[in-house]
Protein 1
Amino acid sequence: MDSRHWHILGAGSIGSLFACLLDQAGVGCSLVLRPSDPALERGSLDILLREGSVTNRHNFALGSPASAAPIHQLLVCTKAYDLEESIASVLPRLAPDAVIVLLANGLGYQQRIAEQWPRFTVVSGSTTEGAFRATHHGQNREVQRAGRGITWFGASELGAPDWFSDWQEIDAHCVWTSDMDAVLWRKLAINCAINPLTALHHCLNGALAERHELALAVRELCVEIATVTEAAGHPEAATHLHTSVMEVIRATANNRSSMLQDISAGRPTEIDYLTGHLVATAERLHIATPRNRSLLNAVRELETSQTLGRNR
Ligand code: PAF
């Protein structure tokens, strides 16, 4: 296996989307599945990537954390709350010079992971691509690309590394930045304005522009979010926030946000790494964020009621 090969941990909607895009560009990649995933027995997996009326089939070799092949380049697309456990599970497979790219929503885990495993190069990523997993068809999985966005990668002290040239070949807009913190704050701000509302109202992103009361809620949330983002030292990430949020809502109008997908599937959400991080930062800076706090509480309550419902 060549050392440019990517291993993808977390084949949910975004992990599957990038696996297909890398494969389409001729960049080798394979999927690392949980040992309990029944697909592992087959050794390979087809993923159908749908965009508009076009569907392409991609075939991937599968491995588990226990497979023998060393991992040189690892893209981790798990949920924020699963990142550390997922990386720990593949540690024996990581080559000494491994690059780990984290492509999850939210803030609060990046530094912890880089400090925990200093021998690896840890790069943060962030994407505004919209994608969701459609139902499984027999042995295939299907991912719907619901809106094109921008994908940033960066690590503060590094220029663009050699491996990034492969990402410039894929059919997506990928950018290297030396100011990843600003990008992560911008993305956090956008997610805080979109995800909790869509999860609580069970609606597509587009409804936040179409329904008057939701559009108003987005506008009010953006005021609080921009204030915290600016006070946290990222004024550039706060500039014209409402305009940017509305642009993302329109570009991903047909998407079910990742938080809505989590709630619908009865999974925990990333609320603690999104609105939770924003509200904690606001508290530290003595800024009132009643609207965000109320969404934080409402999503946490929804998660708890789902868990109780499952255990009943
Ligand atoms: O979390 C998500 O769903 C996405 O980050 C975004 C950009 C809000 C599109 O749905």
Note: The pocket of pantoate is lined by residues 105, 128, 130, 191, 194-195, 205, 248, 252, 255, 257-258 (CB under 6 Å).
Protein 2
Amino acid sequence: MRKKLGVLTSGGDTPGMNAAIRSVVLAADDNGFVAMGIKKGYAGLISGDVSRIKPEDVRDIANMGGTILKTARCREFMTDAGRQKALNVIKAYNIEGMVVIGGDGSFAGAEVLDRHGIPTVAVPATIDNDLPYTDFTIGFDAAVNLVISEMAKIRDTMNSHERIGVIEVMGNQCGDIALYAGIAGPAENIVIPEKEKDLDEICDRLVSERIKGKTASLVLVAEGAGSGIETAQYIHDMTGLEAKAIVLGYTQRGGSPSAADRMRASSFGIHAVQLLARGNGGRAVGIRNNNLFDEEIKAALATEPRAQTQLLEEYRILSRNG
Ligand code: ATP
């Protein structure tokens, strides 16, 4: 009888989760496993929402946003009783290894499964890019692309009305979405947790830009560094300039994954299954300096946030002509 391997998506959905599922299912087949799909993350493990997922089931999903397995946040899995139910379901289905696709909370859950004797590999998927052990998480690139395309639209209308656009973006406690979009977009000012917050300096720059004839500017505010609405109010109060807050919200999580997301998702999924095929559980897969690697989930979760010194210096130079 072929061994069974379970796969679930958990936490916030991200573009590219489907590409990761596809990769896990096809790599499972390649390694002689039967893939079992678990719906709604850990909630489906507890309720027994488990069914076989065949290679033909993942034929057309690599380009799709969201996750065909659905995702959820599950408080019950945080309790001993909930975890025991999940472990019982895993055993009842004879699942011998698990791939968990999600963010840091999901990783903590994956570590729990592994510690309880179910070899489990964690695959990083969150638009926030807030798992610093890996350079990139699945979904981050699509989110940045989405933000820069919204910035272009916002800039048009801000230009017409001579306004400051203050755009709040996601990222949890990580400023990467704002930093990357600030460089690539570009935006004249960013407010991120990795950079000392100086709204008065931003106000001074906005005023001097206006004196020099620049009629519109964008300020990107990472949610971990403040509120877009409050920042816009502060700018208006301090400068008298008209500042409009735009909170991009969930639009950042939707849509088709970028090519980079699909490539990373595909590599991560294959690598995760190959680890399980070799009997290596408790690992997190990631990419660093363009190299695929894996390390203990615990070590991955303990990695300190990136300082982003180089990108911040690049941003400083590129935002000089504000
Ligand atoms: P996102 O980055 O999108 O928020 P996430 O994976 O961090 O994704 P969380 O809501 O933090 O999202 O976690 C997802 C689920 O993982 C939780 O609902 C819970 O079931 C499980 N989980 C979180 N933390 C733990 C933990 N410490 N131990 C066991 N399970 C956990």
Note: The domain at 143-253 is CATH 3.40.50.460 (Rossmann fold).
